[in-house]
Amino acid sequence: MTNSTATAASPEARTAAFYELEPHHHPEGASTMLGFWIYLMSDCLIFAMLFAAYGVLGGNFAAGPGPKDLFELPLIAVNTAMLLFSSITYGFAMLVMEKGKVRATQGWLLVTAVFGACFLAIELYEFSHLIHEGAGPWRSGFLTAFFSLVGTHGLHVTFGLIWLFTLVVQLSKKGLTPANQRRLQCLSLFWHFLDVIWIGVFTFVYLMGML
Fold first, then answer.
1. Residue 9 has pLDDT above 60, yes or no
2. For residue 4, what pLDDT is reported?
3. Which residue windows are transmembrane per the record (predicted)?
């Protein structure tokens, strides 16, 4: 009688055998990193489509100029070096972050911003020079695909710089809190991702275009 009454009176006990009543508590920040990796994968799809479009339209010059007529490879090599150096300096920022040095982290972030700004300045100069020569994105399918791919990458670098300066201000106000460290790690993934994409652009668009 007692056993049957206890069983009838406590349905939660039977329910708990099938699933837990209490919610799971995930480690703080785990969902942030997972969400950011998902975002990077979606960005990969965007750049994959832009690369595919360039692969299809890259030979459509419409009787206009081609890569050999337009690209200044030494200038693009310098631009590539700027972005590679910025990736190295961001790595230094992450190393001093692990040691808890706020000022040093901010310093390396600002050095990274200088290299990133130089990269953008050279890219904007290239774009303005091409448009001045009459080789704007409206001129041919090749130039439409070129401006779309390289311009999208440059737009990502611009957003990365804004994010970087925002983190410098956050570090001044709150220091290397766990939340700020996660933000720095996410920006590190983003910045190195842009570095990898640019290596693909430099190889596929510029080097192969000059061959």
1. no
2. 47
3. 36-56, 76-96, 108-125, 145-169, 189-209
